[in-house]
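Pilot study result, target chain (258 residues):
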Amino acid sequence: MRTRVYVDGFNLYYGALKGTSFKWLNLVALSYRVLPSGHTIEKLKYFTAKVSGASDADAPARQQIYLNALRTLPEVEICFGSFLAKTVWRPLVNLPIAERRIDAPVPVTLPAGTFDVSSPDQQIQTLPVGSYASRNRAVNKRYKTARPSPDAVIAEVHTMEEKGSDVSLAVHLLNDAWKNLFDVAVVVSNDTDLITPIRMVTMERGKVVYVVCPGRWSVAPKLQNVASHVRHIRQSMLRDAQFPHRVPGTNIAKPASW
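Predicted structure:
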């Protein structure tokens, strides 16, 4: 059967790959392991975004190596979204400061107050921290504080939010279905934003859609309701679907830290 695979890259990473040694993943080989026999994967679309080096300077280079490896597979098409950089306020559990840290017996939500700070030379300093909520309503409104516990501490932190991949995946899935480019679609994601497009493809176009859940997560019940079949990615599948250390016929090699 003509089969197309749609991979939510970040959903796959955080659900099945982060913290493992299986990041050097051949997505086409994985897809064949997930599916029963009788399928021909004509196209695999991988939805991702270029990562930032803000917190890990080597991350963009590692990602580029992996994308180069994927591009050696004739079935693969890479579709890019983007990252939105922004700052948000979050409650603290621990507060490292450069090479110093607040002394606390266990990781806890820190109350407001003054804390001893250990430095590498063992000199004790103090660090004052403020409370999560302010008595000033204007300040609370600005920072959207909603105190989770009395006098919890917050910090303004940088965050990168991936944008566009779920929408792009949905559009490609619908467009390909209406063009009758597949008999079977495989959606590698547990994102409930895909419920409506999957339902349209199965109900209105009569296509078969496998929802493949990354890792140990349970499949969202509403996704189960619209999918033709549900599969889980198991560690044995990841292990057996790795690229060779060096991709044959190329200079593309697995990043050392992977």
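One observation from the pilot: The chain has two domains: 2-81+164-240, 87-160. A full batch analysis is planned for the follow-on phase.
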